[in-house]
Amino acid sequence: MPRRLQLANRIGLPVAALIFTxxxxxxxxxxxxxxxxxxxxxxxxxxxxxxxxxxxxxxDAEAAQRGYLLTGRAEYLAGYQSSRDQAGPQLEVLxxxxxxxxxxxxxxxxxxxxxxxxxxQMEQNLARYREGGLEAARAGIDAEVDQASHRIRASAxxxxxxxxxxxxxxxxxxxxxxxxxxxxxxxxxxxxxAVVGSVYWLLLREVRRRGQAERDGSQANQRxxxxxxxxxxxxxxxxxxxxxxxxLQNCLSAAExxxxxxxxxxxxxxxxxxxxYRIRASNDYAEELTHWGQHAAASAVLLTPEQCWALxxxxxxxxxxxxxxxxxxHVEPSADVGAYSSACLPLAAQGTQLxxxxxxxxDPAFLARLDLVQAAxxxxxxxxxxxxxxxxxRIQSIRDPLTGLxxxxxxxxxxxxxxxxxxxxxxxxxxxxxxxxHFKAFNDLHGHAGGDALLAAFGQxxxxxxxxxxxxxxxxxxxxxxxxxxxxxxxxxxxxxRVGEAVRELxxxxxxxxxxxxTASIGLAVFRPGADDAARLxxxxxxxxxxxxxxxxxxxxxxx
Length: 560
What we know:
Elements (H helix, E strand, L loop, with lengths): L2 H69 L2 H24 L4 H38 L3 H61 L4 H42 L4 H15 L4 E7 L6 E7 L5 E2 L2 E2 L5 H5 L3 E3 L11 E2 L8 E9 L2 E10 L8 H29 L9 H18 L3 E8 L2 H27 L5 E6 L2 E7 L3 H16 L4 E2 L2 E2 L5 E7 L7 H17 L5 E3 L2
Parallel strand pairs: 14-15
Antiparallel strand pairs: 1-2, 1-8, 2-4, 3-6, 5-7, 7-8, 9-11, 9-14, 10-11, 12-13
Helix pairs in contact: 1-2, 1-3, 1-4, 1-5, 2-3, 3-4, 4-5, 5-6, 5-8, 6-8, 10-11
């Protein structure tokens, strides 16, 4: 073997290998730096979003307080209390996010102290409002309040400015990492290719064994370039998924979360059709929420869980064009559709099935990105579950699920509040206690389902008869209450007569049949300033109700 060829074998190929190894290590290091920077950027965005959330809660509390001071409506006070209660957990989340930054942690503590001061000022102003009315509350909005609000905004701006500075610093770090990767790609790869080319030219005169060695080197170079491309795409996908997760956590409704997911999947899977399904509360059907793109094989708008293998098994179900995988029953390919690939991904959170994502395309290339899509689906599932849970808890806390009226706890809170308001302003207040006559016998005859249908219909009736300022509640069982603020005895008696007449005319249909008509006994009590509190007023109305039942039912009796 010529000396020149020996040198090529001993030096050329090892040098090329070292160059490519260095390029690969550099690319891996750069990719890790990119991923770390992406995580830091996501953390910074979370901190900024949390700061905005704290300010938003305080603004919401101030707005709701002003609404309550101006109108005296209970829903504004409830909104203020909700925003006030959310401010504390929001500050705790913010403190947790910046615990590794002493400067930001100190600023968060200052923001928490200022927020507590501002909330205390709002509580004091509410106390002034309860004691002296709107004029007293207006007098409480002084320079100290403005100064506290200004300091809160200044503290929040300091936090945001520092996070923006960190964001700019991380952007510069990412730029340096990109420069390193470009330098490695621009210098290392051409140099390595040049060395390999030289060795290949020398070894071209050798036998087939040397030619095979050169082909192996070329294949290794191709794999390296593919690895670099995959790393770059993977880094971009991780950044996209991180931004999606941050936005998803701040969605206020399921519609927002679904729209955000549609935008993400449209960008990640171009040329692929997609349909997102949501399982009904009854768990009997999954119905289409939205779709995008053009499906290679259409899917039903409404499907049962038994029609989809993914919903049956709780696992993704894939159908490749070159495989004989069992097709789901909800997929409806037309006669002229050729080969296609599809994927069904179940949406589940906390052991509960929420829906289904269906994807299809003529080209199976989109299946290579299913890991990324699965991560997005998991985030969407948890977001939908949390949003549904928040809404359910909010409604359950103040509403009776059967009738839709307010529950007893809300009744007691509202009655105390309305009594104080009417007594302070010298206004009358009346309270009705309503009982459906012979309900136990009705329930025994028509079953609990029939009784529930009657209670639900009466709840709707009572809600429709109540004025805007009235508060209709289910007291328990078949007993209901109606708080009538600013209503004297005669107005209350007129309202009670209307309720009694409406009950007699009420027609309820259940299981295709009309249930028998019912009547109602009503006890009425008018608030006596200085003599009644909430418990005493309820007791007097309840005693009047029992008198109405003893005197023959289907009547209105006013407490003495």
